[in-house]
Specification:
The protein has 654 residues and is an alpha/beta fold. It contains 21 helices and 30 strands. The longest helix has 17 residues.
Length: 654
């Protein structure tokens, strides 16, 4: 969790630019408060009214059925998510660009709504021809290419769930996720491009599929043209299937609660959780929040830089923007390819008006320097967004001044894989912003900072961020594990949703999210579990015990530090250290590669045997306590000194 400097609370809020407010969907704080109060007093009426922005085959009979912790939104309603993202735009906007895709090497592809619709229909027919039925799960392990959203929308069209696994995950991680969801089909590519190098997705898929008996077929997009392994009878080329498929595929009506997707995310234990999202409530949350928070209008060019492998890409590249009929930019590669001004060059060329990125990216741009930016015309921009981790006020101000030239409101959006959509964020024409604060909850979202008994904590005190009432985009359960759903989110503070985040509320009701209170680590906004990394470490023959903590990192927010005790007879060495880092990368994925592995004789433990993470965290941050450590990562550290120190100070119970 980051250090919180109370000084920031005294800074003057920055009002929305007047010109912006005049044309915005929500034009003043008073207007926001009116909406908020209405939603609070009459939630059913409020959400019932919002739901009219979706196209229904049959309207819902009820807004919400709440049998805590199980919610059903818009029961009785029938709709098709892909119809909402595509078909309904065709009458007026068939020739409007839906997807403007740019490859890392500069190749481009533009798909209008009519073209995207046709490709999704064809792919939906492909899925049906392979025996995919409503309720089945399709795993997707792909690079950032147009076929990825096409695959997702194709699944939605036939009522199948997708489970997108980020391309940076390992074969083991992919296999675990396929097994948990019992996916029938895997969609992948021969490879992807990242920083000019090839990411061998098919090779990793092949390794994963050795242990995936539920998979019947693998559909492979030809992206790199590299030579790949091929299993006859199982592997099929995407382009061959698509070529043969009819583009006639009427959208089938599905129930509001039809499962839309599973997305795995890290929790406190070693086992990732399959967050389940369903159709109508989720889509409404995405569509409505995209419109309000980015103040989206017909002529906007919208670019969210996330990878679709994460929830931000699901909600704010695919479902939210397309449900609104927006024109979106999608970029395949890295921000520094071929040079560190790639993003600014893209903004200039596509005339991007809305730019949604991460705090880590902003900090990296800051470190690269303004020279990369100043040679580009960024005057098309009108709204800037950030997500994924707390943004420090210095980075916020830099974003505002150097990218937004002091005229673009910044929306610091707080939400989670579980919430489905944005929950706390400024509305750009209405909410005065305070750098570092996600500001106020959206209308209909009842967020409160409380203590463990559920009582609100006074302004300026740290507490737990909770959501007090169900909301449309909320996860419905953890796939296959209702007990864990209840336990992790609804039992810590009975009756309310526990976010796992610490926060403070200031005197104006603004929320300052400080970071996680559990063992979840956020590296560059990616969510990783300490336990998952620990189990990866102990699966290495040399390791007896491991404890993993985060230390603050100037660019990535947090970095992973591992304390490892070795099996007897194994000596620490630089080679072993690299081998352990590689081992974690191979077991979980490259995103989980530790920044540091430190060898210790024994790990400091409480009397009851629990590892004292708080002390390790301190140690990881400061690089050592007096007399205890040398900072040399290859020698054995004697952490018993810390343990003795802690015990002497009575600090041994966490
Ligand atoms: O700790 C919060 C942090 O990211 C967590 C959710 O991570 P994930 O499910 O991967 O979703 C990330 C993208 C929505 C939260 O519990 N977080 C997210 N946005 C913010 C944030 N922390 C502070 N400020 C934010 N704007």
């Amino acid at each position: 969790m980051q250090e919180f400097d109370p000084q920031v609370l005294n800074e003057e809020p920055i009002p929305s630019p007047e010109e912006f407010s005049k044309r915005a969907h929500v034009r003043s704080l008073a207007e926001y408060r009116e909406m908020y109060d209405h939603a609070l007093r009459r939630p059913d009426e409020f959400w019932g009214e919002q739901a009219k922005m979706l196209s229904w085959f049959e309207p819902a009979k009820r807004v919400l059925t709440w049998d805590s912790p199980h919610a059903k939104w818009f029961e009785g309603g029938k709709l098709n998510v892909s119809f909402n993202c595509l078909d309904r735009h065709l009458e007026k906007n068939a020739n409007k660009p839906a997807l403007m895709w740019e490859a890392e090497d500069g190749a481009t592809l533009q798909l209008t709504y009519a073209e995207l619709h046709a490709r999704v229909c064809k792919f939906a027919n492909v899925l049906t021809s392979l025996g995919v039925k409503a309720g089945d799960c399709v795993a997707i392990y792909m690079p950032m290419i147009p076929e990825l959203p096409i695959a997702m929308l194709g699944c939605a069209r036939v009522g199948a769930m997708h489970s997108v696994v980020f391309g940076g995950f390992s074969a083991t991680a992919l296999a675990d996720r396929i097994a948990d969801a019992k996916s029938k089909i895997l969609i992948t590519a021969d490879g992807g491009f990242r920083r000019g190098k090839i990411v061998p997705l098919k090779e990793t898929s092949d390794a994963a599929l050795k242990n995936c008996p539920t998979i019947e077929k693998a559909i492979v997009v030809k992206r790199t043209g590299e030579k790949i392994g091929w299993q006859e009878g199982r592997d099929l080329w995407w382009h061959e299937l698509e070529e043969k498929a009819s583009k006639d595929c009427p959208a089938t009506p599905f129930d509001s609660e039809q499962p839309l997707y599973i997305l795995y995310t890290s929790g406190t234990t070693g086992k990732p959780k399959g967050v389940l999202h369903t159709s109508a409530g989720y889509l409404l949350h995405c569509m409505w929040s995209t419109r309000l928070i980015f103040d989206l209008r017909d002529d906007d060019i919208y670019w969210c830089t996330a990878d679709i492998g994460w929830v931000t890409g699901h909600s704010y590249i695919v479902y939210g923007p397309l449900a609104n009929g927006a024109s979106i930019v999608m970029y395949e590669g890295a921000p520094d390819q071929p040079r560190k001004d790639r993003f600014w060059e893209l903004i200039e060329r596509y005339k991007v008006t809305i730019f949604y990125s991460s705090a880590t990216a902003v900090r990296a741009f800051m470190a690269w320097g303004a020279d990369w930016i100043n040679s580009h015309d960024l005057s098309s921009l009108r709204v800037l967004g950030t997500v994924g981790e707390p943004i420090n006020p210095a980075a916020w101000k830099w974003y505002y001044e150097v990218i937004g030239k002091n005229r673009c409101p910044i929306v610091d959006t707080w939400w989670q894989t579980e919430t489905g959509g944005i929950m706390i964020s400024p509305l750009p024409g209405a909410t005065p912003t305070k750098p570092g604060s996600a500001t106020l909850p959206l209308p209909g979202i009842v967020a409160r900072v409380v203590n463990l008994s559920g009582e609100p904590v006074p302004p300026g005190e740290t507490g737990y961020l909770t959501i007090q009432k169900p909301w449309p985009g909320m996860l419905r359960t953890i796939y296959g594990d209702d007990d864990r759903f209840q336990r992790d989110y609804w039992s810590r503070i009975p009756g309310v949703y526990f976010t796992g985040d610490a926060a403070q509320c200031d005197k104006d009701g603004y929320i300052w999210v400080l970071g996680r209170v559990d063992d979840v680590i956020k590296v560059a906004g990616h969510r990783l579990s300490s336990m998952e990394i620990e189990s990866a470490l102990v699966s290495h023959v040399a390791v007896a015990e491991a404890a993993v903590v985060a230390r603050p990192d100037e660019i990535k927010g947090e970095a992973i530090v591992c304390f490892v005790t070795l099996r007897s007879g194994t000596a620490p060495s630089k080679e072993l250290r690299s081998a352990l880092i590689d081992h974690v990368g191979a077991t979980i994925g490259t995103i989980a590669r530790p920044a540091d592995v430190r060898f210790a004789e024994g790990l400091p433990k409480t009397r009851s045997g629990k590892i004292m993470r708080r002390l390790l965290r301190e140690l990881a941050q400061k690089g050592g306590l007096p007399g205890a450590l040398t900072g040399d990562t290859t020698t054995l550290e004697d952490l018993s000194v810390i343990e003795r120190l802690a015990k002497a100070k009575g600090l041994d119970e966490e």
